[in-house]
Specification:
This is PA0069 family radical SAM protein. The protein is of the alpha/beta class and 357 residues long. The chain has helices spanning 29-38, 100-104, 112-121, 142-146, 148-158, 176-184, 199-205, 212-224, 245-254, 271-282, 287-296, 316-332; strands at residues 48-52, 59-60, 70-72, 75-76, 105-109, 130-132, 163-167, 188-193, 229-236, 259-264. The chain has a domain at 29-262: Aldolase class I (TIM Barrel, Alpha-Beta Barrel), CATH 3.20.20.70.
Length: 357
Amino acid sequence: MKSEDYIKGRGAQKKVPNRFLRHIYETRDDFLEFCHIEGEEFDSNKTQYLPIFPKTIINKVTSPDVGMQYSMNPYQGCEHGCVYCYARNTHEFWGYGAGLDFERRILIKKDAAKLLEAKLKSKSWKAETIVLSGNTDCYQPAEQQFGITRACLEVFAKYKHPVGIITKNALIRRDLDILKELAKDNLIGVNVSVTSLSEETRRILEPRTASIKKRLETIKILSENNIPVNAMLAPIIPGINSHEIMGLAEAVADHGARSFAFTVVRLNGAIGQIFTDWIKKTLPGKAEKVLNQIKECHGGTLNDSRFGIRSRGEGKIAKQIHDLMRLAQRRYFANRKFPTLNKDLYGQYKDGQFRLF
């Protein structure tokens, strides 16, 4: 049962101080009482869209635990509000907090498509798959208003350059025309995140994401149009969705996913504090059990930064998760394979048009 001070429609349930800032702002009880007496809201809980103008858009990924070399993010911060999201910590580098700020102050990179095209036209660039949403979802609600992701996909299509997408939003279906064009040349791979088959779990864990039904439908529609889909069954959180592993794998396989991947949840930096506060307000009856099981997967702590282990976990609970995933692979994905994307066409289209000679 949720506590009375639960903030509906948000993952994080409070603001968290930015570790890089000298000053911390606190909301005092006497101010809250004043707002109550005056009938005023001290916090509107509305999302703000803030334009920013970076000089580059492509990020080199150096982590050995992440299966990509390059990523790009049209938006920083994410209104989806997934309480466990590892990207929350990056919002501190922009001067904001990893809690409510992350999902209410969304930074918009309106020049993303221009920056991408400039990079693809540069003489030094060689084709490597660039993944949209390596940090924050490129199809979060802001995309419906700004259309930056679609503009970037048009650039990838123009230059016949391979691109990957990670999302948990059905809005990707809007761009089916461009995705089909890319798929004809094996230039696109989509990763759809499906964390639970329970709508109640989805609503509290990932409050502003597409429903589970819509995500499964999205996998089916993309697959029927020969757009390869990898299902991200991530993160697996002991005591919350760990019992759903076989069901999740079967569901995404039935809807056409060619492969799946997973991680064991880790709560680094400010995320440990945010998640602990969230679960005590949202699932108070099982909070301590879940937190202790997560700690058991990471050497007794919520904060695990060890390369090679941090996303896999260790110990008995982590082993059970991995054993179930291996069983799911054998049972539902034995003869399926996610394709390697095509890097050969880009050189011919680097000038924005096909070379005849």
